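Quick one before lunch.
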Amino acid sequence: MQNKLITLIEQTEKQKAIYKPLLFRLKTEEEFVKFNHLIKSESNLMVFDELRGQVKELIKLRNPKKNMTVEEMEDEISNYFDKNDPDKLGVWAYYPWANKIVHLLDEEEFVEVRTNRNFYKITPEEKDILAQKKVGIIGLSVGQSVSVTMAMERSFGEIRLADFDILELSNYNRIRTPLSNLGVSKAIAVAREIAEIDPYIKVKCFPDGLHEGNMDKFFSEGGNLDLLIDECDGLDIKILARIKAKELRIPVVMEASDRCMLDVERFDLEPDRPLLHGLVDGLDIKKLKSLRTNEEKVPYLLAMIGIDTISSRLKASMFEIEQTITTWPQLASAVTLGGGLTADVCRRIFINEFSDSGRYYMDVEQIVGNKDKKKPTLIESKGFEDAYLNKDEIIAIINSSNLTLNNKQKLINESEIKEIVSSALLAPSPGNNQPWQWYYDKGNLYLFLNKKKSSASSDFDNLFSFISLGASMENLILKAQEKGLDVCVEEFPSGKSSPLVAKFNFYTPHLETAENRDYQALSQYIHLRCSNRNGGNKERINPSVIDNLISLQRSTPGATIKIIDDRARLIELNEVIKTCERIRFLHPELHADFFEKEIRWNNQSVESSKDGMDIRTLELSATDQAGMRVAKEVEAISLLNKWKKGKGFEKISGKNLDAASAIGFIALPRHSASSYLQGGRLVERLWLSATKYQLALQPLMAPILMFLKLKHNDLAGLPEHLLTELRDAREKYLKLLNIDENIAEIFLFRLAFAEPPTARSLRLPLEKLLLINKI
Ligand SMILES: Cc1cc2nc3c(=O)[nH]c(=O)nc-3n(C[C@H](O)[C@H](O)[C@H](O)COP(=O)(O)O)c2cc1C
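Model of the flavin mononucleotide complex:
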C-alpha cells in the first residue's frame, strides 16, 4: 500500500471515537482565535454558510400573519444583523469526522426554527417539558431509528446511547448510515447523526455497551434517566437494565421489529410490576449471561417477546438459524416503523398523555392486507378420540364372532385380572395413544383395537397400533406366567377387519398348547421399560449383549433382528432417519397429528388426558423446546415447504441420533396385521431385555411410517421436492440395512447408554380400558 494511503487511513482511524461537534461563537475572542487556527490548519475543509437563509426563515416564522415583500424581508434581515459582521453571529459547528463546518443559528433560535413545524402536534409548553427529558437507549440497530426520530422531533434534551457493537455491512439492510461508518461504534454513529441534525442536543455515548460496571453512570450521572428504551440483544442486560430501571422507577419501552410489537413497563407508576409482565419470572440471570450462540439465545428471546405472537415468517426463519442463516431476520421497513412508533409513544409518556403498561401490535400485514387473504387450510387430525367401545358394542362383536368355546380354562378373580391387564397397559404405543380395550367374561379375556384412538394418518392401516397391541399382549402373557398361569391366545378370532384382536384363556396346571415360558423372567422389567429419549455417550455395547438381543429373533418364526453399531454405517443411517423425521414434521397431516393431538405442552394437559406425549419426555433442550413451540404453527410449516427449507427439524432428533451406541431393526417376512401383532410381541421382548441390560431404547419410527406411506401413495400434500428426497432416502436405507423391499418392517430403534428419562409417560386409568362382566 502507498505510504500516503496508509497515512490517510491512520488519520481517519483516529477520528473513530469522535462524536461531539465543536461549536465556535466568534463573538468571543478566544473562540475566534481557535476557529481561525482550525481553518488554517485543516486542509480540504468544507464550509457551509447558509445563515442568512436560516435568519430569513426565523423572521418568517415569527411573523406568520405578515406577507412580506422582498424589500420588507431584506429590511428585517438587515435589522437582525444590525450592522454586525454576519460571521460573528450564530455558531460555526465543526464536524471533525466529516471535516466540515456549518454556520447555524444559535441554540434558542435554531431550536425555534427547527421544531417550528411540530406546533401544535407538540405545543410550546410540551416542547419545553420535552427539552428537560433524559432518555437512555440500549441497542442501536433498532435504537438508531428510534434515537434519530426522537432527535428530529426533539422529544428529549439529553440522550445516552449504549451499544458495544460496531457497524458491519450486514447491518446496512436496516440501519441507514453512510458506508464510511463501517467499523465505527453503532453508538457513535448515531451520536454523529444526531449532531448533524442538531448540534445542541446533549449526547453521551457508551460505546462499551451497558454493563454492570457503567450501569450507575448510564442511569444516573447528570441526573436520572426519565425513560429507558431497550432495543438490545443482550438477554442478561435486558433483565439487569430493567432491574435498575425498576429500582429507580424509570419506565421502559421496547420495540421488537416483528409485527411492530411495542412493550411498555411503567415502573414509574407501578413500582411493583413484574419485569417484562412476568414473562421472565424464574429465569436464571447467571445462565442468561453465559449464553453464547444465537441458537442458545433464541428460546429466551422468544420467551421475552412471546413465542405465540411472533409472525409466521419469523417463526419459520427461527428454524433456519445456524442452518442457512446466522441470526434472526429484521427488515428496514419494520425498523423504520418501529422508530416512529416508539418515538410517538415515548413522547406521550413524557407529556403524561399515556400511562398504561402493556404490549401492543401495529401489524402492518394485518392492518393493510388483502381482505380475502387465504389462510392455510387447517388439517383436522382423525383419531386420538377419548372414545371407547361400550359393553353392548363389545358383546355384539363377540356374539357375531365365530369363537372357539373353551370350557377347561381357569376362571380368574377380579383382582388377578386387573393385575395382569394393568401390566398390559404399560406397553408402548405410538404417541402414547393406548389404542386398546379389554373385556373379561367367564374365563375369556378379549383384546380390542380402539380405532378411535388410533390415528388415521400417522398410523398407516392401524399397523402401528397392532405393534402396540402385540406389545401389550406380551406384557399380559408374561405377567400371567409370573403368576403361575399358562396362557392360550387366539389371534384375530373373527377376522382381521374386526376390532376383536385376540382372545386369551388361562390355565393351571400347564397346557401343551400354551404360550412358551422361555421369557417369563422378563416380566420384572415391565414396570421399568420406557422410551428414553436422552442422548448417550456413543459407547459400544458389549457384543455378547448384542448377540443376546439378536437371538430373540428365534422366538418369532421368520423374524429378523439387526443391530448396527459400526460408526460409519450409523452415521449414514442417521442421515436417512433425520431426513425422514424432518419430512414427517413438514407433512401437513402428520404435522397436525403431532402438534395438535399427540403433544401435551404442559403438566395440566398431561395430568388431565393421561395419554399423548408429555413434552418433557422428549428430553429437549430449552432451544429445541422453543423450536417445537415455533414449529407448531401450520403457516410457518407451509412457508418452510415453499422455501424448500426446514433443516432445523433435523437438529432436534439429530443430537440424540449421533449420541447412540447402536441402531436396531426388526422385520418379519410378510406384510399382514398378524406380522405387526407378532412383531409387536417381539418388540416388547427386545425392549424388556434392553431394559434388563440398562440400555436406553427409543423407537425411531419416522422412516418406517414415511416409507410405508410412500409405498402406498399415502402422502398427499407433501411437496414434490420432499417426495423425491424421500425416495432417495428409501434407496439408501434399503442398502444400508441390506433388506428387501417387500418385507414387513416392524421397528427401528436407537440403543444408548443414557441418563434415566426426566419424566415417564402416563397411562389411562384401568377402569376406562377394562370391562369385567360380573354376571
Ligand atoms: C409403534 C410405535 C411407534 C413409536 N414411534 C416412536 C417414534 O417415532 N419416536 C419416539 O420417540 N417414540 C416412539 N414411540 C414410543 C412411544 O411414544 C411411547 O411408547 C409412548 O409414548 C409411551 O411411552 P413409554 O414407552 O415410555 O411407556 C413409538 C411406540 C410405538 C409402539
